[in-house]
Amino acid sequence: MRYGILGVTQAEDDQGTRIPVGGPRLRALLTALALRPGRTVGPDTLIDEVWAAAPPADAPAALQALIGRLRRALGRDTIVSENGGYRLAATPSDIDLFEFERLVREGKDALAREDPASASRALHTALAVWRGPALADLSDRTAATRPEALRLEATRARIEADLRLGRAPDVVPELKELAEAHPYDETLHALHIRALRDTGRGADALAAYESARRVLLNGLGTDPGPALQALHTELLHPHAHAYSRPQPSHAHAYPQPQPQPQPQPSHPHQYPYPQSEPSPGP
């Protein structure tokens, strides 16, 4: 079985056939278990994540009924009852979130060793895993903060790789939208300015810098940081800086993630959940 929690929660069997998981509470329960694959999750935690601030009067009984419904939907062996709670019989490689994390690490490592082609492939594939907001079926959005931040980080790294491959014309429109959506993100502003420069639009690059400077000054009361200021200096004095425009790459086909299991990441995921929880009292 494979589970998707980067978007509305879903499940697929080993042949890639979608298994219906109906109802928001059932999907919230599956999300809470999939966040901790192969680990025991206590009833109190599951109740908090399924019902948030409005649990039913007999919440433990309601949870047991919901567990029964999830087993009927996915198969009895997929949810294991253990001392202290319940466990999803899965590994991180069965969950799209952890596949995404593995691919991001792979892409960033490739970028660090000056292999932008491999970085671009890995990061395009990682970002294609997303189908919507992370952990969309959980009422409390706190747990979604980290994967959403990593998604933006992966986007920045993917664009960096594409710029190094000479694909500036492909990313200019996207960067304009991203810089507007994240007005205080200096890295995105710098990528946007570089992309404009690399397409021969020096005047537009200077205008983009001035726009970023005003946004930072008006919104945060600060000037652009050293990286943006150095980029501005290069734009003003292009002949004083040795610069070779990246040559376009013709490898524009980006593989999409495949539904087969991936090997378990060598580094455990960093979500701050306990390995197991104590047994509830009598």
From TrEMBL:
One of its GO terms (molecular function) is DNA binding. InterPro entries: AfsR-DnrI-RedD_regulator, BTAD, OmpR/PhoB-type_DNA-bd, Sig_transdc_resp-reg_C-effctor, TPR-like_helical_dom_sf, WH-like_DNA-bd_sf. Residues 1-90 form the OmpR/PhoB-type domain. Residues 246-255 have a biased composition (Low complexity). SUPFAM superfamilies: C-terminal effector domain of the bipartite response regulators (SSF46894), TPR-like (SSF48452). Residues 1-90 bind DNA. CDD domains: BTAD. Residues 243-282 are annotated as: Disordered. Residues 256-266 have a biased composition (Pro residues). Coiled coil: none annotated. Keywords: DNA-binding, Transcription, Transcription regulation, Two-component regulatory system. GO terms for biological process: phosphorelay signal transduction system; regulation of DNA-templated transcription. Gene3D superfamilies: Tetratricopeptide repeat domain, Winged helix-like DNA-binding domain superfamily/Winged helix DNA-binding domain. Belongs to the AfsR/DnrI/RedD regulatory family. PANTHER family: TRANSCRIPTIONAL REGULATOR REDD, TRANSCRIPTIONAL REGULATOR REDD-RELATED. This is AfsR/SARP family transcriptional regulator. It comes from Streptomyces acidicola. The lineage of its organism: Bacteria, Bacillati, Actinomycetota, Actinomycetes, Kitasatosporales.
